[in-house]
From TrEMBL:
Binding of pyridoxal 5'-phosphate, residues: 115-116, 242, 306-307
Provenance organism: Castellaniella defragrans (strain DSM 12143 / CCUG 39792 / 65Phen) (Alcaligenes defragrans)
Gene Ontology molecular-function annotations: adenosylmethionine-8-amino-7-oxononanoate transaminase activity; diaminobutyrate-2-oxoglutarate transaminase activity; pyridoxal phosphate binding
Chain's gene name: bioA
Entry GO terms, CC: cytoplasm
Pathway: Amine and polyamine biosynthesis; ectoine biosynthesis; L-ectoine from L-aspartate 4-semialdehyde: step 1/3; Cofactor biosynthesis; biotin biosynthesis; 7,8-diaminononanoate from 8-amino-7-oxononanoate (SAM route): step 1/1
Protein name: Adenosylmethionine-8-amino-7-oxononanoate aminotransferase
Length: 424
């Protein structure tokens, strides 16, 4: 095994600023030289089984030839043109196909380049919808404890502050209204009572349906979403589902909201949209929301437009990714992963410091009593050949949907073994 770190790492590390990282104390990141399928190859020749699918994006595994081919062909013909005044087939076809998948009512797609920005656009759509209806006082967004919606200023305001790690910006971030998810009758009544007093200043409710991802893979029943839809309708406010994590099969259905048989007014998509290859996000609005902007007044237009909006390479990758949901048995694979995660993580329930083990679709989470030493835990997983990184006190697996059973078994075994004898 080669041991020397590559020169680009040593030379470049002095000039890079890494995400969520105390640069002084954190170990240098591991040099990756190649990806393939469910594997990450390091510079020293080690091959890791990826338990995270690169922040939940690489749902078909890495380097899928169908996506690679589509992006290559797009690169040769039309990599990018501005989206103001110009249109191209990949973006418009992708918009049509996304609406077809989302089902009736969700009709208009606004493309951006990151999940956070797609949530920003959803918030702007909701607020301006009311502004255009002569209700400009509806500025508040109701979001939920445990939620995460991004790192930009507008989205920080709708994150659970404990999840979003945003204390450094207190005072600069607009305050929004954070509530408990209505997971039982008492909480539903509390939220409803609050809405009775404040609904005329509320633009929208915002929630991650079924699973709050970055907040620690917190899961709730579909009935919670039905309650939120019902409350939104009763109080005449919009409902936004942030499906950036849950969308594209992760929870067992193409979109999580399908399991609740309710539909949002606005939905945000990103992460697995391009199968983990290129940055792209979408904010999809219902006919009602879109019609709120349909007017002879230029001031009623949606005032947003990222430079790289509707990037043709990213749209081509997304179209190819959608093809794979049709040509390969993705949702059946997710059902298989769900069974494997349930079986494979079950032994963790007996461990003394384990608070909860939960599974939904291709998401398996083991919640510990308290946050472990993440670096030590990561090293133990690396020794087991697995790429796994806890979120606070939650150790989780979100594998690619194509992961074969024997690799899933190696991941769940690694979690069980490492947590049974956690590193000091
Ligand atoms: C990751 C995530 C975001 C933010 O997406 P970025 O692309 O990182 O900006 C927003 N909402 C949810 C639910 C996410 O999981």
């Amino acid at each position: 095994m080669k041991t020397a770190l590559p020169a680009w790492l040593a030379d470049g590390h002095r000039h890079i600023w890494l995400p969520y990282t105390q640069m002084k104390t954190a170990a240098a990141p591991m040099p990756v030289v190649r990806t393939q399928g469910t594997h990450i190859e390091l510079a020293d020749g080690r091959i890791l089984i990826d338990g995270i699918a690169s922040w939940w994006t690489a749902c078909h595994g890495y380097n899928h030839p169908h996506i690679a081919q589509a992006v290559r062909a797009q690169l040769d013909s039309l990599p990018h043109v501005m989206f103001g005044g110009l249109a191209h087939e990949p973006a418009l076809t992708l918009a049509r196909r996304l609406c077809g998948l989302l089902g009736p009512g969700l009709e208009r797609v606004f493309f951006t380049e990151s999940g956070s920005v797609s949530v920003e656009v959803a918030l702007k759509m909701a607020m301006q919808y009311w502004f255009n209806q002569d209700e400009p006082q509806r500025r508040r967004i109701v979001a939920f404890r445990g939620g995460y919606h991004g790192d930009t200023f507008g989205t920080m305001a709708v994150c659970d502050p404990g999840v979003g790690m945003h204390a450094a910006f207190d005072g600069a971030v607009p305050r929004q209204d954070l509530h408990e998810l209505p997971t039982d009758d008492a909480r539903a009544e509390a939220l409803d009572a609050w809405l009775r007093g404040h609904a005329d200043h509320v633009a929208a409710l915002l929630v991650e349906p079924l699973v709050q991802g970055a907040g620690g893979m917190r899961m709730h029943a579909p009935a919670v979403l039905a309650r939120l839809r019902e409350m939104a309708d009763r109080h005449g406010i919009l409902l936004i589902f942030d499906e950036i994590f849950t969308g594209f099969g992760r929870t067992g259905t193409m979109f999580a909201f399908e399991q609740a048989s309710v539909r949002p007014d606005i939905v945000t998509l990103s992460k697995a949209l391009t199968g983990g290859t290129l940055p792209l996000a979408a904010t999809v609005a219902s006919r009602r929301v879109f019609e709120g902007f349909w007017s002879d007044d230029p001031a009623h237009a949606l005032m947003h437009g990222p430079t790289y909006m509707g990037n043709a390479l990213a749209c081509a990758a997304a179209l190819a990714s959608l093809d794979l949901f049709e040509t390969e048995p993705r949702l059946a694979q997710v059902r298989g992963i769900e069974r494997a995660l349930r079986d494979g993580l079950a032994p963790c329930k007996a461990l003394p410091h384990v608070r909860d083990v939960r599974v939904q679709g291709a998401i398996g989470a083991v919640e510990l009593d308290r946050a472990p030493d993440r670096a030590a835990l990561c090293r133990a997983f690396l020794d087991a050949g697995a790429w796994i990184r806890p979120l606070g006190s939650v150790v989780y697996l979100t594998p690619a949907f194509v992961m074969p059973p024997e690799e899933l078994r190696r991941l769940t075994d690694a979690v069980c073994t490492v947590l049974a004898a956690p590193p000091a």
